[in-house]
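Researcher: I need the complex structure. Ligand is fe (ii) ion. Inputs:
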Amino acid sequence: MSFSFEGFVDAVREAACEPDANAAVRAVLERCVADPDRIRNQTPLEGDDEVMLFEDDKLSIWRCRFQPQVLMPPHEHKLDVHIAGYSGREKSILFKRRNDQLKFEGTEIVGSGEVLSLDDKCIHAVTAEGDVPSLALHVYMGPLMQLKRGLYDWETGEQVDFTLENFDAMKRPASAFPEF
Ligand SMILES: [Fe+2]
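Model: Output:
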């Protein structure tokens, strides 16, 4: 069966109405990325790396491409999120915040065909592991762009408002943090 982003959004929206929305949405994602080539074939090579496919009060659905040489800054979502890989390897660098500082907790890799679920307390930085960009579907269980949420300074752990300007300014080359 062919894949379309419209059909995918419809399936996720339907799943989000189930009594256990997290489990149902995750199951849709697992089913979709079980055949990753179908999604890759429908993904434009050009255009924005991060594309919002849908958002309402209940759900935010994105398609995200990350580049291996760029680290996206540590940030929170304040929502449960399910990340389903369909090309390359997306790396989450996980942190906890203690005494106003960021404490590195470990990394999680999402390979093609895999789904990672993170809870609403999670703080992560993101990049692509390896030499090629990663591609994944991200489903946030609420209105991501309507929430006031934080970015965290790489060195000091200080919280700043999540704005596109701050997000861009706080990106780092992967070579800046070889320990990750
Ligand atoms: Fe994120």
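Model: Summary of the prediction. The mean pLDDT is 96.
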